[in-house]
Amino acid sequence: MVREYLQRTIFSHFTGENNFIMNKASPPGNELSQKFQDINEIGIYLHIPFCTRICPYCPYNKEIFREESCHKYVNAVIKEIDNYLPFIQNIPVTSFYIGGGTPTTILTKGIESIINHIYRHLNMKCPVHMESHPNHLTAANLKIIESIGVKYLSIGVEAFQDNHLKTLERPYTVREVINNVERAVNSNFDCVNIDLIFDLPGQSESEIEQAGLEIVKLGVQQVATYPLFRFPYTLLGKQFNKRGNEIITAFRRRRLLQILEEILYSSGYYRSSVWAFTKKGVDKYCSVTVPLYLGFGASGSSYLKDIFYVNTFNVSEYIKAITEGKSPVSLSINLSEQMQMAGWLYWRIYETRFSKSDFFKRFNICFDEKYGSLIEIFNRIGYLNNGNDQINLTDKGAYWLHAFEDLFSIDFINRLWGTSEQNSWPDKVVLLNS
Ligand SMILES: C[S@@+](CC[C@H](N)C(=O)[O-])C[C@H]1O[C@@H](n2cnc3c(N)ncnc32)[C@H](O)[C@@H]1O
Ligand code: SF4
After folding, report:
1. How far is the CA of 280 from the centre of ligand 1 (A)?
2. Residues 315-338: pLDDT tens digits?
3. Could you read off the pLDDT of 157-181 as tens digits, one per residue?
4. How far is the CA of 230 from the centre of ligand 1 (A)?
5. Residue 389 Cα, ligand 1 centroid: separation in angstroms?
6. Strands 276-279 and 42-48: what pairing?
7. Residue 28: band (very low, low, confident or very high) from pLDDT cuts 50, 70, 90
8. CB of 65 closer than 6 A to ligand 2?
9. Is the minimum distance from the CB of 172 to ligand 1 under 6 angstroms?
10. Residue 220 is inside which H or E element, if any?
11. pLDDT value of residue 167
């Protein structure tokens, strides 16, 4: 009750809206062409919804890999890209991210055709960032991954203790995953990122310390570390559907993250987002590095200034829609300018640093006039340093301001992804209402 009341009050204060509802509607073609007219750079996201096995905690859109479905999927994605070409072929693409599911499941089974198609037909100004499963990183596969243009590789390591890997049902031992990460680090990538999940059931502070020291020893350029989120629609979420005491959990996670911060800062890493630490001098591995993006594939989502929309999550329905010349978009929402500003601020807080002049360039409104008094309060309580133009969040501020953002985002993800997994074409998804 208190949580819902807070959500509604704060949401309407920042966005000027009482409701946040995505409706069954796809952006019509002619309107879409207008959306690209004054966009001067864009990011693209490609979703590969296949895995060889399903992890019980995973909230992402995925299904078990099948050769036949993969073949059709690759053709459908290429067709979806072609449908956008008239609008986007000249716009510089400055960020390209392949996520999943597990993109390396379809290595040599079509991913190279999609990547080649993208580089041949779009105005590509960036290398490929791609997620991978540790078990796929054989020497031969790493050569293939390099040859298809991947310069930023992420590996889902998740834990450095065998008992925790077992809880997560990850199909490898610590010894095996270390060997595979070492092989990737010794290849020619610009950045190797590893994912680590912390605050696992029964995990101790000394285990986190051990994980931090192992990361440093491995010499990876980046680590992205998330607390274990229990999304109610996942298998793990169904087993643990009781919310623990959220305040105790938040303080425990802060302490665990502090242990990692101490180890990583003293070993030449800096905080590159709320959950990521990157070696100084390395460009960070990141899902989307520009504010506007297009998402291809089942569950791909797109944000084009005043509209946010998502493709159907169902792989067969996605393939069917594209093959029949229909739009794969299942839900969309038009965003008022105030919503766009709140969204901008959300992501800049996530990145932990931003400049007021960027806000002015995007909205033609003075940042201090819009958010100055709030920023001053955060400055006073030590959550950020408020410069003339640059705002930098402190460690304390990054953690607590994002914990506050999670008050909304985890519920929104739950509703949008949870519903879209059950229903390929929902009439609407109510993310928040009064
Ligand atoms: C798409 S997966 C990574 C690539 C590959 N599929 C794998 O599992 O190795 C993205 C990452 O999200 C993180 N993740 C997934 N489910 C999570 C959850 N419930 N809580 C926290 N992090 C999670 C994991 O760190 C995972 O590596
Ligand atoms: S965590 Fe990775 S491998 Fe496991 S189900 Fe999710 S996407 Fe697939």
Report:
1. 25
2. 999 999 999 999 999 999 999 999
3. 999 999 999 999 999 999 999 999 9
4. 12
5. 35
6. unpaired
7. low
8. no
9. no
10. none
11. 95
